[in-house]
Amino acid sequence: MSDGAFLSIQDVERLLADPSPVARADTATKVASAYSRRALNATERELAQAIIAALARDAEASVRQALAEHLRQSDDLPRSLALRMARDIAAVATPLLQHSPVFTDADLIDLLQAVSPQHQSAIAGRAAVSSELADALIAHAAEPAVVVLIGNRGARLGPSQMGSALDRFPDSRGVGDALARHPDLPPKFAARLIAQVSDALREALIARYHIPPAMAADTMMQLRERTLLGLLGDGAEPPALADLVADLQKRGQLGSTLVLRALSGGDLVFFEQALAQLAGISLANARLLIHDPGRRGLAAIYQRCRLPQDYFKMTEAVVELARGFDFVRGAAERAEFAEMVTAMMLADYAALWDPQEQRWLSRRRSRAQAAQRMVA
After folding, report:
1. Alpha-carbon gap, residue 145 to 126, rounded angstroms
2. Chain mean position to CA 177
3. How many C-beta neighbours within 10 Å does residue 75 have?
4. Contacts from 4-8 at CB under 8 Å and sequence distance 24+?
5. Model pLDDT for residues 9-46, shown as the tens digit of each residue
6. What gap in Å lies between CA 28 and CA 75, rounded to an integer?
């Protein structure tokens, strides 16, 4: 017997004299610890495997749990035994499901469809979760496990997985909160989360994605739409904005109210991208039509996008006002333009907006003025 003998004569005598669950759990701990440390010779290892297999069938959960706790890091635990223990009660299975290196992704994917949410959460909390395993968890696991997965920084989660989680649990506070905390949350998902996350996380999203706080104070029905206007902040990069606008259209949220409200707040870049998406043309071509000096191009794309005729004169005025502004070059000019547009809305086009909209325009104007002062 090696120097690291896993059971002494005294251990055996004690077990024979006191076969209680406590004594058996102590035996399980000693055998499993020695096995995991590779402190056994070949003969002892074979004997230890037989003892482990017997203890894994022990009637007392505490015995099986002690065994699992001390075998969770073993990289040569027989796979068949590990799979059997993984289907045990959660207290026994969890240490192995979360830590054991003997499981393959295929093993875990098979297991997660046949075990409890607690088992699934253990799988979702593994130190490394592949994209394939993440897909399976999002598709089949219960909500608590998906929350654990999203909060696991060792999980490979991309925009497609985050979108799938949102689609499957659209009203889940837990999923929403976990996504809001994720460092790689794509901007296009932030607006979908605003109305379902906690107040604290809503404030965090507002700050992180430069969503005007006044928008978040509106009623929840209007909040889902209005927060989109400030989602990426002034001067957003066209690819990111295009991604957002495309997602809005896919979800049926790129309506005329949103598009025209964005324009009334001075967000010409969003307006251009939205019309390009609605008209099914490139952004460059949309801009040529919108800014056609003869104005026929603007009328054509406006009609093609089926925007309400009552707002066309307003749209013409905003586009005309935009001539001479360089929206790419600096925040100062964007803020100045937003201030001028909102002032024009309140002075010349107030009849188009109800009192609540007018209050929003006033707040938007105040923020634009404050932005100009900060730049100065």
Report:
1. 11
2. 8
3. 9
4. 4/34, 4/37, 4/39, 4/40, 5/34, 5/44, 6/30, 6/31, 6/33, 6/34, 6/35, 6/39, 6/40, 6/44, 6/48, 7/31
5. 455 555 545 567 887 888 778 888 888 777 677 877 78
6. 18
Token pair of 247, please?
């997602």
Q: Enter the DSSP assignment of 197.
A: S
| CA angle in degrees (0–180, nearest 5) for 320-326-332 | 110
CA 68/CA 25 separation, integer angstroms: 11
Which residues lie closer than 8 Å to 171 by C-beta, 6 or more apart?
196
User: Domain coordinates of the chain in residue numbers?
Assistant: 1-74, 255-376
DSSP 8-state secondary structure symbol assigned to residue 263: H
pLDDT 10s digits, 90-146: 999 999 999 999 999 999 999 998 999 999 999 999 999 999 999 999 999 999 999
